[in-house]
Design goal:
There is one protein chain. This protein is an alpha/beta fold and 291 residues long. The chain contains 8 helices and 10 strands. Strands 1-2-3-4-5-6-7-8-9-10 form a 10-stranded mixed beta sheet. Strand 5, helix 3 and strand 6 form a beta-alpha-beta unit. Helix 2 runs parallel beside helix 3 and helix 4 packs parallel to helix 6. It is globular, with a radius of gyration of 19 Å. The structure holds S-adenosyl-L-homocysteine (SAH).
Length: 291
Amino acid sequence: MPAPLRAVLEAEVPFSSLTVEAQQEARDGTVKTLFRTREGHKVEAVLMRYRDGRRSLCVSSQSGCPLTCTFCATGSMRFGRNLTASEILDQALHFRRIEPVDHCVFMGMGEPMLNLDSVLAAARRLPDIGITWRRTTISTVGWMPGLRRFVDEVEEPIRLALSLHAPDDALRSQLMPVNDRFPLREVLAECRRYHALRHRKVYVEYVMLAGVNDRVEQARALVELLDPKVFKVNLIPYNPTGIYDGSSRRAIDAFKAVLDRARLPSTVRLTRGRDIAAACGQLAAAQPVSG
Ligand code: SAH
């Protein structure tokens, strides 16, 4: 192409809607990238590399997050705005240029159900870069207007994950103020409707906080709440962000044993990228320590 045309294209058709500001690699191979939007909003995304060869992306749907879950660092940065579909897809394309990727979770900054149109537009394009819908998961706190639409409108086999974190409303509201607006009963009913309509299980995320939600009685309460035909539990070791302590390995095992006995399927999430603050709940666009 002639040089003047290249100059025009570069000025008017940017290669990406995001610019890379910093990138760090953790000891376990996890890569975290800090991007900026055109007006300077910060966005982070993560590439997780697993020993079995899986390459999983964790992308953001918003710059920051307007919700204020007490255990999550993203809520402590200033909320910017919803990202466009291009800005979401450009996070994935950035990593796709490093190496082939095959899974994507919408578990970075932001609440996907507050920005559902852009999230879906991006998710629907992911097969073009090698990530099938079955390997795409959208996670939500249970923001009902978006969740209802997701259940009714999404025909593609995109997976749904619910951040639950407590087996009762009192504790859940304390951990996640959004629960006052959309209580457990309503959110779980909507998840059951998803299962009935789409015949896919809902993943329940449960971050393990020492002495807060990790007691054996709470595991029993969780068993009462979740039908094993509908839900699969993912216990998440807490990544330090401030006020809580993570549950011990023993507490996590004891909690899991209760779920196992009730035949409620569960796994313990592998923690990735903690040394570069790239793990769940640690995305807050803090400036990386140099070196
Ligand atoms: N807003 C959506 C999408 C973000 S997903 C949602 O909350 O589902 C990010 C996941 O990491 C959520 O399950 C969240 O609860 C969890 N998380 C947040 N802070 C964490 C922390 N400090 N340690 C472990 N997991 C955390």
